Known about the structure:
By secondary structure, this protein is α/β, with parallel strands linked by helices.
Amino acid sequence: xxxxxxxxxxxxxxxxxxxxxxxxxxxxxxxxxxxxxxxxxxxxxxxxxxxxxxxxxxxxxxxxxxxxxxxxxxxxxxxxxxxxxxxxxxxxxxxxxxxxxxxxxxxxxxxxxxxxxxxxxxxxxxxxxxxxxxxxxxxxxxxxxxxxxxxxxxxxxxxxxxxxxxxxxxxxxxxxxxxxxxxxxxxxxxxxxxxxxxxxxxxxxxxxxxxxxxxxxxxxxxxxxxxxxxxxxxxxxxxxxxxxxxxxxxxxxxxxxxxxxxxxxxxxxxxxxxxxxxxxxxxxxxxxxxxxxxxxxxxxxxxxxxxxxxxxxxxxxxxxxxxxxxxxxxxxxxxxxxxxxxxxxxxxxxxxxxxxxxxxxxxxxxxxxxxxxxxxxxxxxxxxxxxxxxxxxxxxxxxxxxxxxxxxxxxxxxxxxxxxxxxxxxxxxxxxxxxxxxxxxxxxxxxxxxxx
Length: 452
């Protein structure tokens, strides 16, 4: 379905907003974070704001959407509709509900109730018949007899709901989508919505659908995951060390979904008023993440010795190694192949750095976007050099590899990179003479970052 990436600039002021704005994403924390920014924008100028969470009775929500405020000519109604949309996989919902229930904590129970309500909607099953009848029915539909007992326990304690059903709320939302903003705007939020949803498709066509899924550069993902960790820890009265967050990011390979799941386990383990130390992450979270060579290059480019050396150790730890999404086959020649990749990157950095230091070179700094680089910087790099009559870049300067090399070279001088390139030849000789691989690379990378 067509949707835009969320940004504050994508939210219009209330008077220019469509009648329905929806924000979706994989993780509730980031959806709520985006919704808070959207709410702030839409509520400017004395707008009445009503907010309903996922557990609100659908009838009360529908009434708020259909009626006008007595106190303000403009009303913003924020509604969490994840349950209304269901999911692509009821089986996953059932498993998530049982896992949350088995945690045995108040937060786990609340999560189990939310998942159960979404499960009932997705299967079009009512809880009115009682746990002893509904749980076996769900287990039969999902062909998961093993979950029946736990599902029944959840259903027995599931708080009773009052108000009109989901169909009435869906009809109300569809009515609003078709209508112009006449003083009422619905701000809808949904976490992990199904890949195919008629309601969201209608919003994308006639309203505004924004995606708050975390992506982009690894540094941006890391910053988002730190916000998630600190936010979830505060919600649960748990203290978490910055180094513990960093270690969890590394161990989960910066995968937001995996990070969030492991974070929740750690928070449950710590308990109210507890704390999570870096050592706890090492003991509680299995480190099965692969390692990305490009992430190591980024750390080198930042001259971040601690991060670069930690990544280097992981590259030689026997785990899976990749270059972006491309897996790398590790064999006996891996040290020499890695040295070749590192040398190629330093050579690219030196080449770009030297050319951009020449008189008349276009500006390049940390804010330069790839599109700007291709339009203004790459043509200069690809210009033929006298007396050779050709460019050392071979017409390839517009490639993403040279753009990244230019960014990584910003913190280095040409002299430092030239020394590193020379030192790579000495490193090659040491490796061929059976020098210890990790220790030898560690000394070299440390010297590269220090500029010695």
